[in-house]
Amino acid sequence: MNYLAHAYLSFHQPQVLVGNMISDFVKGRKQFDYPPVVQQGIRLHRAIDTFTDQHPATKRAKEFLKPAVGPYSGAFVDVVYDHFLALDATHFTETGLRSFAEEVYAQLHSNLSLLPERFAALLPYMSQQNWLFGYRFTDGIEKSFGGVVRRAQYLNSSAEVFDLFVLHYDALHEAYKAFFPELYQYTSTQFNALLIQ
């Protein structure tokens, strides 16, 4: 799950952030149990996911990882994109990313009552282990890959997909560079429209 991208594309709006971060934990009509601005964040998350999945660069990136993880390749590409976003000087300095991560954790903790039980349970690990900042480092990506495997029904190991990530690092970086500026432009220009749908 690309938590860093979803947090960043919430544009510093706390309840939009909550919705954007919890969307994968909120199924069907459960979204209507939340305040309107959180619902807007949930819709924003889903629009981001649709744009990401349909982008030609994402389709190319998946092909590099499919030999190891088959149909789960998209989930791993999401993590890969967060790695390159964390290193992208257009968006973050190292210090800026560290500060942004702390801001996100603080906002999520201050809205704890709105978080689904499963997300609330992982938030202490996310903040204590500083997942958002950890995306800068390949060992952080290796750990995140392990988390994807634990949630996947038919995967047993992340070793092979991590090896493919390292092998195709430059090509995956090129995919990110072709993809993320367009996602950012799409999300920022459509932000208000997405929020009122």
UniProtKB/TrEMBL annotation:
InterPro entries: ACP_PD
Highest taxon of source: Bacteria
Keywords associated with the record: Hydrolase, Lipid biosynthesis, Lipid metabolism
Entry protein name: DUF479 domain-containing protein
Organism of derivation: Sediminibacterium roseum
